C-alpha cells in the first residue's frame, strides 16, 4: 500500500491541518496518511484526525524507541555536537524528535512519500511513486547547490568518504522524499553506526540533525537514489521553496513558469508565524493566501479577517516587543 507521511506535534497543528487538506484536495480521502509524533504533545492532532478516517498517528512504540536510540547513539559519537548544543543553552540532543520520521521505514506503507508539516501538496504524486519502481530513494529539490546545510564542509574526511561529484549531485533536503519500507534493516543500521564510530561522524551537520543523518544513510548505504531536479529539462522542472518569489497562483495551485509545482515548502518560516496568523495577527509572508486557503478549506467561516495593517514576517521587532521579550513575557 502507498501512503503519505509527515512528522508533527500540536505546535505545528495549523500547518498539519493545511497539509492534510492539501492532500485531500488532490486525493479526497483515498490517500492514507500517517503522522509520526515528534513528541507526546499530540492531543489536538488526535482529536482532529478522528474526523479523518484515512489519517492515523504512528504508535509503534518499539519502532519509535529503536529510532530514538539510533539517533542518540549517533550524536553521542559525534565529536563536537553535544558540547556545542549545551554551550548555547540547548538540550543534550538538538531538535530530538525530528528523526522519528524514520519510523516510516518500519511501516505501515510499503511505499511512501514523506512531507514536512510545513509543506503543501500541489500535484498528484504519480511520477514520484512510479519512479520508486526504478529507485529506492526519490527526491525533488535543489539542496545539492548548498552542501553546508547537509554536511560539515570543513571535515577532511568528507571527500574521503564521498566523491566531490556525489556531493554536488546527490545531497537532498529532507522536506520531501519517497522511499520504501524496510530499506534500512538492522544489518545496514549496524554497519552505518560502525562507520560513524570509526570517525565518520565528524562529517555530520548538527544543526539539521534529521537531514544530515538521512543523507548519510542514503549515500553511505549505496541505495539507488533519483532527484527529479537533476533529470527534468529546464523547461519542465519547478522550484519548491517559499523563498522563490516568482510562482503564480491559479485556483489555489502554484505554477512556476507555467508548470504546476509538486509541492510548496515554507522552509525557514517559524511555526510561530503560522500559529499567530491563525489567531488573527496580520503577518504577511510569501504565498500566505495559499496557506490560509488550505488551512481553512473545510471551515472557511473561521478564516481570519484582518483589519490592521500587515507586518512582514521578517520585520525587526518593535520597541515594545523587545521590552516584552527582555522581560520574558513573550518568546
Could you give a quick summary of the protein structure above?
The protein is of the alpha/beta class.
Description:
By secondary structure, this protein is an alpha/beta fold. It has a single domain, classed as Spore Coat Polysaccharide Biosynthesis Protein SpsA, Chain A, CATH 3.90.550. It is built from twelve helices and 14 strands. Strands 3-2-1-4-7 form a five-stranded mixed sheet, covered by helices on one side. Helix 1 crosses helix 11 and helix 3 runs parallel beside helix 8. The protein starts with a strand and ends in a 5-residue tail after the last helix. The relative contact order is 0.14. The mean pLDDT is 93.
Mean pLDDT: 93
- Indicate the radius of gyration in whole angstroms: 20 Å
Quaternary structure annotation? single chain
Look at the structure and give the CATH class. Answer: Alpha Beta
What is the tally of beta strands?
Answer: 14
Query: What is the percentage of strand-forming residues?
Result: 15-25%
Structural class based on helices, strands and sheet pairing:
alpha/beta
Assign the CATH topology.
Spore Coat Polysaccharide Biosynthesis Protein SpsA, Chain A
What number of domains? 1
State the CATH architecture: Alpha-Beta Complex
The side-by-side strand order for the widest beta sheet comes to 3-2-1-4-7
Distance between the termini: 42 Å
Stretches where pLDDT is under 50 for at least 5 consecutive residues are none
Shape: globular
Largest sheet: 5 strands, mixed
Please, how many helices? Answer: 12
Amino acid at each position: 500500500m502507498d501512503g503519505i507521511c509527515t512528522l508533527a506535534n500540536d505546535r505545528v497543528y495549523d500547518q498539519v491541518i493545511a497539509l492534510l487538506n492539501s492532500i485531500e484536495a488532490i486525493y479526497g480521502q483515498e490517500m492514507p496518511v500517517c503522522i509520526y509524533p515528534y513528541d507526546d504533545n499530540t492531543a489536538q492532532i488526535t482529536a482532529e484526525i478522528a474526523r479523518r478516517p484515512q489519517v492515523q498517528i504512528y504508535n509503534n512504540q518499539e519502532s519509535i524507541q529503536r529510532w530514538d536510540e539510533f539517533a542518540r547513539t549517533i550524536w553521542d559519537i559525534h565529536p563536537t555536537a553535544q558540547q556545542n548544543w549545551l554551550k548555547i543553552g540547548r538540550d543534550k540532543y538538538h531538535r530530538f524528535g525530528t528523526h522519528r520520521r524514520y519510523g516510516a521505514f518500519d511501516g505501515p506503507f510499503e511505499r511512501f512519500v514523506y512531507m514536512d508539516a510545513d509543506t503543501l501538496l500541489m500535484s498528484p504524486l504519480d511520477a514520484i511513486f512510479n519512479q520508486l519502481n526504478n529507485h529506492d530513494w526519490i527526491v525533488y529539490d535543489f539542496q545539492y547547490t548548498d552542501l553546508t546545510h547537509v554536511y560539515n564542509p570543513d571535515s577532511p574526511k568528507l571527500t574521503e568518504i564521498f566523491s566531490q561529484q556525489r556531493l554536488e549531485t546527490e545531497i537532498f533536503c529532507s522536506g520531501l522524499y519517497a522511499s520504501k519500507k524496510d530499506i534500512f534493516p538492522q544489518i545496514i543500521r549496524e554497519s552505518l553506526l560502525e562507520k560513524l564510530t570509526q570517525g565518520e561522524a565528524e562529517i555530520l551537520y548538527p544543526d539539521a540533525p534529521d537531514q544530515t543523518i538521512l543523507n548519510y544513510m542514503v549515500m553511505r548505504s549505496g541505495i539507488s537514489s533519483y532527484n527529479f531536479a537533476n533529470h527534468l529539462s529546464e523547461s519542465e522542472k519547478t522550484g519548491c521553496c517559499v523563498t522563490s518569489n516568482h510562482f503564480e497562483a491559479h485556483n489555489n495551485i502554484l505554477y512556476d513558469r507555467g508548470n504546476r509545482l509538486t509541492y510548496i515548502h515554507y522552509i525557514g518560516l517559524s511555526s510561530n508565524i503560522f500559529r499567530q496568523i491563525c489567531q488573527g495577527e496580520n503577518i504577511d509572508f510569501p504565498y500566505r493566501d495559499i496557506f490560509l486557503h488550505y488551512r481553512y478549506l473545510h471551515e472557511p467561516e473561521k478564516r481570519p479577517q484582518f483589519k490592521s495593517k500587515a507586518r512582514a514576517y521578517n520585520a525587526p521587532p518593535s520597541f515594545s516587543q523587545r521590552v516584552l521579550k527582555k522581560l520574558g513575557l513573550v518568546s
